[in-house]
Specification:
- It is a single chain.
- By secondary structure, the chain is α/β, with parallel strands linked by helices.
- An eight-stranded parallel β-barrel has the order 8-9-12-13-14-15-16-17, surrounded by seven helices.
- Helix 4 links the parallel strand 8 and strand 9.
- Helix 2 runs parallel beside helix 3.
- The protein starts with a helix and ends in a 17-residue tail after the last helix.
- The structure holds ligand TNX.
- Ligand TNX binds next to loops.
């Protein structure tokens, strides 16, 4: 290239921009709120160009006489205390808080819609987080958390003062159901691992955790009236290793831990297929009256309850009664998938009757999309995983849909052919493919008005521990969270991937073993 005067001035301009960027990175003064990498992307962000500093004496003020709101204050204080070394008191008081405070309030949430919506006003002297319900305040706290440096996630003392860029965020989700599923049947995961999983969902504003509690390989929830389900049926897992199960006390502990994070547990008892663990535990549930062997392989579709025997319905009624009593959430999931060993003429009356049992215990039914072959009862939700035809049939019967199409949303699908774990029967799902689809146009004729939300299931045939869970879940989970929260018209992979890249440091700080997809421009610092 000829060294003209014009060229030289372009070079000088570029050099100037590079230096300016370097300077702004080094000083680490967050002053432009619109530049923050928030996932899911909020509805509206405006910046005012200054910063709020957390100082000695910064306290959290609770306005509104509400126990749950107070708990959100404790939750925020527990994040801030170890990293600041300050006291961070949580004070319930209607009085005007002093300068330097963080205020959590159920008043004045102007322009905020829904229970999970929130408004975050960050000024130089105060932060005010307002919502119409404690759930919204909790969601706003997750945003605030992402405005702090990634190192906060280590939970260790940070010497420099913590600063947050000033401005206003108003936000609310598109869908009311935003969740993931964990299959604890094929491989069993301890309570502590489930709690970690819950923390990951909470960080990205997901609000539902579906636990796949029974399958051919293991029964994982204590049922006091049928104790052999867990004693025998929970004793193994895929590969032949020891299984495990949750006692009712442990299950309640999980439910409460989730509830404190505004997450609802949806328990699944899969039937009439995927029932070998139960069939092996009680001979009377089998068609021939003979108990099966425990199964530790990964085939599907070979087991069925005896749909023609009354003892089967007594069994289901007992199980659902105990489970419903332990579950504050509105849904019980009854599976219904891949019942290849149940005749269609038996499947239909069975699913009809089991829906009635769930309703008789005061709960609504969730089931895989095959439920559409039966009479879908009012309030039943069909979870679409494979069949668009079933989805259309379900909507035709007035049902709402939960979107979990395997080709897009299955967390057990490999990213590519080199992924060391996972399956690929529904295809490979790289991070961009998992993100770039719209639930409301995925199936022709099924729009947003028919859909309650999105769920990303993690099946565990190949996944045996938390580290492996993390590899399949991250970094795809934040994308599913954003699909559920942010309008399709505000989403775009090329912009999202930059925000996601900045979360690499957060994953590192949280100790998450994530897949470093080549499609995401991870910053060099988190290498
Ligand atoms: C299909 S998805 C299944 C599960 C398997 C999964 C593996 C569904 C309702 N049934 O039994 O674990 O594929 O990806």
């Amino acid at each position: 290239m000829k060294r003209t005067k014009k060229n030289r001035s372009i070079v000088t301009l570029i050099a100037g921009i590079v230096i300016m960027n370097l300077v702004s990175c080094n000083t680490e003064l967050p002053t432009d709120l619109t530049k923050a990498s928030i996932i899911p992307k909020p509805v509206s962000v405006t910046a005012t160009g200054e910063a709020f500093t957390i100082k000695e004496g910064t306290d959290i003020y609770i306005q509104g006489d509400n126990e749950e709101l107070k708990k959100t204050g404790d939750y925020l204080a527990a994040i801030l205390r170890p990293v600041t070394g300050y006291e961070i008191n949580v004070i319930s008081s209607p009085d005007l808080p002093p300068s330097g405070s963080i205020i959590l309030t159920l008043a004045g949430a102007e322009g905020v819609s829904g229970q999970e919506g929130y408004r975050l006003d960050i000024a130089k002297k105060t932060i005010t987080l307002s919502a119409t319900a404690p759930a919204g305040v909790f969601m706003g706290i997750q945003t605030l958390r992402q405005l702090l440096p990634a190192s906060v996630e280590k939970g260790k003392l940070i010497e420099e003062p913590l600063k947050i860029a000033t401005g206003t965020i108003t936000d609310n989700p598109v869908y009311s159901y935003r969740g993931a599923m964990l299959d604890v049947s094929r491989h069993f995961f301890e309570v502590e691992d489930v709690k970690k999983f819950i923390d990951y969902l909470a960080a990205y504003k997901m609000n539902m955790l579906h636990l796949h509690l029974s399958d051919d390989q293991g029964w994982r929830i204590e049922i006091k009236s049928w104790p052999n389900l867990t004693v025998h049926g929970g004793s193994k897992e895929v590969g032949g290793g020891d299984g495990g199960f949750y006692t009712q006390e442990q299950y309640t502990d999980i439910v409460n831990y989730a509830k404190d994070r505004f997450i609802t547990i949806v328990p699944e008892i899969d039937m009439p297929g995927h029932t070998n663990a139960a069939l092996s535990s009680y001979a009377e549930l089998n068609i021939g009256g003979k108990a099966t062997e425990l199964y530790t392989g990964t085939e599907v579709g070979f087991s069925t309850l005896n749909t023609k025997s009354e003892i089967t319905y007594k069994f289901i009624d007992d199980v659902i009664r105990e489970l419903a009593a332990l579950t504050p959430g509105e849904y019980i999931h009854i599976g219904g998938d891949e019942s290849h060993s149940t005749k269609k003429e038996d499947y239909i009356p069975f699913m009809n009757r089991v829906q009635d049992i769930v309703v008789s215990h005061g709960k609504k039914v969730l089931a895989w999309d095959e439920i559409a072959l039966s009479t879908v009862k009012p309030g039943t939700i069909a979870q679409v995983w494979a069949s668009e035809k079933n989805a259309t049939l379900a909507v035709g019967q007035g049902a709402k849909i939960l979107m979990s199409p395997a080709k897009k949303a299955y967390l057990d699908m490999q990213y590519d052919k080199d992924t060391p774990l996972g399956l690929h029967w529904a295809g490979y799902i790289e991070v961009d493919a998992g993100y770039s689809w719209d639930p409301a146009t995925y199936i022709p004729g099924i729009g947003q008005e028919n859909i309650i939300g999105i769920e990303a299931p993690l099946w565990s045939e190949t996944v045996t521990n938390l580290e492996q869970i993390e590899l399949m879940v991250f970094p795809r989970l934040p994308g599913y969270a954003e699909i559920g929260w942010t309008p399709w018209t505000s989403r775009n992979w090329d912009e999202y991937k930059l925000r996601l890249a900045n979360h690499g440091e957060r994953f590192d700080a949280m100790g998450i073993n994530y897949y470093r997809s080549k499609l995401v421009p991870w910053p060099a610092v988190s290498e």
